[in-house]
Amino acid sequence: MREFTNEDIKNVSLEIMDYVHDFCIKNNIKYSLFYGTLLGAVRHKGFIPWDDDIDIAMPREDYERFLEEFNKSNNNFKVVSCYNDEKYFLPFSKIVINDTLKIENVPEKYRHNIEFGIDLFPVDYIDSIEKYKKYKKKVSKLIAKRNLSLFYADKSKNIIKNIVGSFLNLFYRNKTNAICKKIDCIFNNNDEKKYSLTNDIFVLTDHIYKGDIFNKISLFDFENRKYFISDSFKNILSVCYGDYLKLPPAEKRVTHHNFKAYFTN
């Protein structure tokens, strides 16, 4: 096996994204670059210089159709989700490429190695902030259970927390996949499209966008290509990053990935 370089991470991500873009056009599926990838497109016309992953999002109805149709095509790519892989422990999906391997930096017994890929998030809708707060309580409890299902003792943690976490892990450890499915379903309620959001469990703040972020999408420059972004990108980026055109301090311009990836063929 040969380990990915930083350039390999970018190049393979773009290879996946090129295929996904063409597939979505052919099948009339809406998507938009999202999170840091959307920020990179708007601010840098490509990857953020110190970042190298790709995130995209789709309206829930397009997301579910994508999950259903994408793996039927005979290609070098597949979509992995908690619905087609019982060991997959995230409520959103990944689009991966064959003949690669991604190894997360976690203890081996909790590691589920899959191919290298890009992240795909469903966008759901809510009709009131009050309803969001109610749903969020349910999601927070499920995320806590998911984390306990993957808990492992760490010498840097308090010994009492390790003991309690290890005990609770015995109860939840075989329920991770089912918990992720429940998280994915919380906001999928066919609500009026007044507000929108994703099910990204790693976002610790309230990212609530306008409800019409997929009313219109347009092609936008990204690494000498053109991908779709939401015409509501200002709303999305302001919610996620505040003054998104302002560069962060130099000490924060670092990559955050915590994995190694390899070519296996």
Outline of the structure:
The protein is an alpha+beta fold.
How would you characterize the overall build of this protein?
The protein is α+β, with helices and mostly antiparallel strands. It has one domain. It has helices spanning 6-26, 35-44, 60-69, 129-149, 159-172, 176-186, 233-241, and strands spanning 2-3, 32-33, 55-59, 77-80, 93-97, 100-104, 117-126, 195-198, 209-210, 217-222, 225-230, 259-263. α2 (35-44) packs across α7, α4 packs across α5 (159-172) and α4 packs antiparallel against α6. The chain is globular.
What is the element layout, followed by pairings?
Layout: E1 2-3, H1 6-26, E2 32-33, H2 35-44, E3 55-59, H3 60-69, E4 77-80, E5 93-97, E6 100-104, E7 117-126, H4 129-149, H5 159-172, H6 176-186, E8 195-198, E9 209-210, E10 217-222, E11 225-230, H7 233-241, E12 259-263
Parallel strand pairs: 3-7
Antiparallel strand pairs: 1-12, 2-3, 4-5, 5-7, 6-12, 7-8, 8-9, 10-11
Helix pairs in contact: 2-7, 4-5, 4-6
Taking Cα atoms only, what radius of gyration do you get, to the nearest Å?
Answer: 19 Å
* Sequence of secondary-structure elements: EHEHEHEEEEHHHEEEEHE
Number of helices: 7
Query: Average pLDDT across residues?
Result: 92
Task: Bin the helical content.
Answer: 25-40%
Say how many strands there are. Answer: 12
Sheet with most strands? 7 strands, mixed
Which structural category do the helix and sheet elements fall into? alpha+beta
Globular, elongated, flat, extended or rod-shaped: what is the shape? globular
Q: What fraction of residues sit in β-strands? A: 15-25%
Low confidence ranges: none
Q: Number of domains in the coordinates?
A: 1
Whole-Å distance between the termini? 7 Å
